[in-house]
Write a structure and sequence with these properties.
The complex is a heterodimer. By secondary structure, chain A is of the alpha/beta class. Chain A contains twelve helices and 13 strands. Chain A is 38% helix and 28% strand. In chain A, strand 8 and strand 9 form a beta hairpin. Chain B has 15 helices and no strands. Classes of the chains: A alpha/beta, B mainly alpha.
């Protein structure tokens, strides 16, 4: 569905020092420099896949997404989405994709969302029966009924995002580009959005590409992740593989029936946190079996769980390694 | 283009709904279009002692009321919207729709005509009451007024669209439009009838596109030309429309290649 070969995207930006002198100098001489937002990225994504783009701010995630959506022309390289060159912006291409940006909206601000729905029906030339079926389905899934008649400006952020998702999917796109779709939403609304995106992906075999700073989004939605840092693709694979590569250690969560001394815990591994009822211990992959066996035989346990390190920590370590290199 | 035309009735409906939603702001904006009335007061006072360049007091009344009508019926504001959307990053989402966003902008501007009519109708009444004798008596010229007003609006819209599109490359283009507006206010006959300019300036102004944005429809209403001349001028106006259509198209395509989609 998506083929990217040696994609490069550079921006030409004007550089100016602060201050009046520099402002006057820039009247006569405007120095420019090329910012390499994306530098030689290649990958392919199959139909129906859900892929997460991860990376720190300014890594090149959103730029890549915008190139794939046809908003930006690649500086070099070849990009094809559904057999189309995105930058040509063919009508058949645009009717197959959608882009949802958590910080931008396409809903008409002073009109109810139903007006934007009607406008998009006309713009995408959606057959009336299909439109009504889709609206009914989206209304039920996202509980939109009480929202469709209110002016957009009177909706809460979460309500607006649900309507944004609905309006972006009215034409049943085959490729969804989601750029920070849950930004600013509360935990319950984030979960609603995730569940909905997953349901849409499964129902229509749609390809989903997601960028998010909420690792929960990526962990819940994306079996495959791509990590972009400083414009380069530094990892492309399954999320557990990324975790194993960056942080091969495990976390053992012990729930205790009574408090224990710290000296009883030290032989198990590195103590991350400890209170009377709960202890978290970091254990190397190789020492895991022995530590678990020892904990089961020596401690007053109510429960024991083995987990991967939190994804946030994995990413922090990954980018710290990148910076150190 | 066929897809855009098919969707256009809905775009007009949406544009009208927006005009109604912004009704108070819209009416204030229209009432603020009062420059022709200010100029009328000045020139009517100046013409008290006798006609100036063929304009009596009633002549000036007819001219400036016609100018107010044309301005009210040909308003466009696409340049400010485009510049703002591009700077704020919301333009990216409009660009992903399979119809050029300028179609929607044009529908928004056109759909506001009924709202403009609320202010324009009393102006027509006053015009007929005060200066009926100054108006054209030729029904054909009144018929030509429809395509002439359409041409004037298209010219105004396309000039704004082509300049607004420059924001795709340069982030902001509204100051360039302000410069255009400065020339337009003078050379379109908005502030002063072109007949009042020195002959050399007038001869140049008659060939420039500004005249076809405002003065030409006024000239039709005042019956300044024979039928043949009026038709020739209509052809010239629409030639300018075609020219600015090509310029907008070129600026659009070129702008999209350089669009950096900042702000999102």
């Amino acid at each position: 569905m998506i083929e990217v070969e040696h994609l490069r995207k550079w921006y030409r930006v004007h550089r100016r020092e602060p201050g009046l002198k520099a402002a006057l100098r820039s009247l006569l001489h405007r120095p420019y420099e090329d910012v390499k937002a994306v530098e030689d990225i290649s990958f392919s994504i199959g139909a129906g896949e859900r892929v997460g783009f991860l990376g720190p701010n300014g890594a090149g995630k959103t730029t890549t997404l915008k190139v794939l959506a046809g908003l930006l022309h690649p500086t070099e390289g070849r990009v094809a989405v559904g057999g189309f060159l995105p930058q040509e912006r063919a009508r058949e291409f645009l009717t197959q994709i959608t882009l949802v940006m958590g910080q931008k909206q396409q809903l008409l601000w002073d009109l109810p969302p139903s007006e934007t729905f009607a406008l998009n029906r006309a713009i995408y030339d959606i057959p009336r029966a299909q439109y009504e079926e889709t609206v009914a389905e989206l209304t039920a899934l996202l509980e939109l009924a009480p929202l469709l008649g209110k002016p957009t400006r009177q909706l809460s952020l979460g309500e607006r995002m649900k309507c944004e998702l609905a309006v972006a999917l009215l034409h049943r796109p085959k490729v969804l580009f989601l750029d920070e779709p849950t930004i600013g939403l509360d935990v319950s609304m984030q979960a609603t959005v995730r569940t909905f995106v997953r349901a849409y992906n499964e129902r229509f075999s749609a390809t989903v590409i997601l960028t998010s700073h909420y690792m929960e989004d990526v962990a819940a939605l994306c079996p495959r992740v791509m990590v972009i840092d400083k414009g380069r693709l530094i990892f492309d694979g399954a999320l557990p593989d990324l975790i194993r590569r960056v942080r091969p250690d495990k976390r053992v969560l012990l729930r205790l029936s009574k408090p224990v001394e710290q000296r009883d815990l030290l032989p198990l591994g590195t103590i991350i946190s400890q209170n009377d009822a709960e202890v978290i211990i970091q254990v190397s992959q190789e020492g895991l079996q022995a530590s678990v066996a020892r904990a089961l035989s020596t401690l007053p346990l109510r429960d024991l769980t083995v987990e991967d390190p939190p994804l946030e920590e994995v990413m922090r370590d990954l980018f710290a390694q990148g910076n150190a290199a | 283009m066929m897809a855009a035309l098919k969707a256009y009735p809905q775009m007009l409906k949406t544009g009208f709904a927006e005009a109604v939603a912004y009704r108070a702001e819209f009416l204030i904006w229209m009432f603020a279009t009062n420059m022709p009335l200010v100029m009328l007061a000045i020139w009517a006072a100046a013409a008290r002692s006798g006609p100036i360049a063929g304009y009596s007091q009633t002549g000036f009344t007819a001219y400036y009321l016609c100018a107010l009508l044309v301005r009210l019926m040909t308003g466009a504001w696409v340049v400010w919207e485009l510049t703002m959307d591009i700077r704020q990053g919301t333009f990216a989402l409009q660009l992903l729709r399979p119809i050029n966003p300028l179609w929607q902008r044009s529908a928004d501007n056109l759909a506001a005509i009924p709202m403009r009519g609320i202010v324009a109708l009393p102006v027509v009444g006053i015009l007929l009451w005060l200066a009926r004798g100054e108006l054209s008596h030729d029904p054909l010229q009144w018929l030509l007024l429809c395509p002439a007003l359409m041409g004037a609006w298209l010219l105004y819209f396309l000039v704004q669209a082509s300049i607004g599109t420059l924001a795709l490359r340069f982030e902001s283009a509204s100051s360039l439009f302000d410069a255009w507006l400065g020339f337009s206010n003078i050379l379109s006959g908005y502030l002063i009838p072109l007949d009042l300019f020195p002959r050399a300036v007038r001869d140049i102004a008659l060939f420039l596109p500004f005249r076809f944005q405002l003065s030409y429809p006024i000239e039709l209403m005042l019956g300044r030309w024979s039928r043949g001349e009026a038709l020739e001028l209509l052809a010239a106006q629409w030639a300018y429309v075609a020219l600015f259509f090509m310029i907008t198209r070129f600026a659009w395509r070129s702008g999209l290649r350089h669009y950096a989609a900042y702000g999102g």
